[in-house]
């Protein structure tokens, strides 16, 4: 089980960063400037999507790599 967690820790870290960005955006309070424009940290939204996409790509790559290793070990027996 620990080996499995070690294989996917990079993906998990990027997933947590993406969730953290979404939480930061939702917990921030919007401000209205003196000239009437709305000021919100909109940069957290694309950052969250980027981190979640990177997490999904790394997870898929590591999953395929793990399946191939398990198949190779099974065939060697």
From TrEMBL:
InterPro entries: DUF3955 (IPR025016). It comes from the Bacteria. The chain crosses the membrane at residues 43-64. Keywords: Membrane, Transmembrane, Transmembrane helix. It comes from Salinivibrio costicola. The keyword Membrane applies. Residues 8-60 form the DUF3955 domain. It holds the Pfam family DUF3955. This is DUF3955 domain-containing protein.
């Amino acid at each position: 089980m620990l080996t499995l967690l070690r294989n996917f820790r990079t993906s998990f870290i990027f997933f947590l960063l993406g969730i953290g960005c979404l939480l930061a955006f939702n917990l921030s309070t919007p401000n209205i400037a003196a000239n009437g424009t709305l000021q919100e940290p909109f940069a957290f939204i694309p950052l969250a999507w980027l981190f979640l996409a990177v997490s999904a790509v790394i997870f898929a790559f590591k999953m395929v790599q793990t399946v191939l290793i398990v198949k190779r070990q099974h065939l060697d027996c």
